Amino acid sequence: IHSKDQICHEDYQRTADWLLSQTQHRPKVAIICGSGLGMLADALKCQDLFKYSDIPGFPQSTVKGHAGRLVFGELKGKTCVCMQGRFHMYEGHSLIRVFKLLGVETLIVTNAAGSLADSYSCGDIMIIRDHINFPGLAGLNPLNGPNDDKFGPRFPPMSGVYDKNLRKMAFDICKSMGVSQCVQEGVYCMVGGPNFESIAEARLLHRLGVDAVGMSTAPEVLVASHCGMRVFGLSLITNKVVKSYEDNASVSHEAVLEVSKMRSETLQVLVTELISRMDINNNTA
Ligand SMILES: O=P(O)(O)O[C@H]1O[C@H](CO)[C@@H](O)[C@H]1O
Ligand SMILES: Nc1nc2[nH]cnc2c(=O)[nH]1
Fold it and tell me: What ipTM did this prediction achieve?
């Protein structure tokens, strides 16, 4: 699966069939680990691990902080598959449809993001209420090309994509974890990257009402929602995006990974508890 122009249902099916022949696990939940958040997979019990390089049709993950492994396992009695290493649009791939063919019903997506909202702090967790898909608005969309009706409709709606019940459940869990003071709910904006924002771009995003910005998530959520998956998303605020010409601060991927590492345990507890509480059989929370 190297160029989306060449990918068809049979390609996804071949990869899914190979995985199903290699593991007894039949996951209903998929987790995508954001930059530096790969340890979310460590909580899985009875693991079956596959290096991306060993999976037919799988591309390589090229970004530091993304290990490049698919981990199957049990979390509180629920069977999950976890991507330790995502593919960004700037890398050119999406594998959500393989998950669909494995039987996955719910996607939990995490990312590292910079904050635009003045009230946010580094280390905050933002439950994603909605997204702005900048590349998508400009016509760069993973659903471009002939529509495959086996996956979903030509014109999928995008309102209410981030499941309300799961968002509420996550809030309740954060309360019981005693971390609600650093939990936010907001709008994630996907930009193409791989550069971080200029100050003028940061100001534009701020004016548009963006709370957090990153270079992932929206394409995955789009494809997942198109094929009928329930979606829940979390952004870890790893940096405040520089919005002032007087501010000498500057962001780096290393700094992003450092904050991710510091907060990954909290995210692991939150995601584990969410999966533990969610009903996966009838697809309701
Ligand atoms: O979205 P994730 O994979 O967490 O990664 C985020 O961190 C990287 C920049 O540091 C970008 O790829 C951005 O999208
Ligand atoms: N575009 C973008 N992606 C990020 N990922 C983590 N922090 C940032 C950021 O400030 N901007």
Answer: 0.99
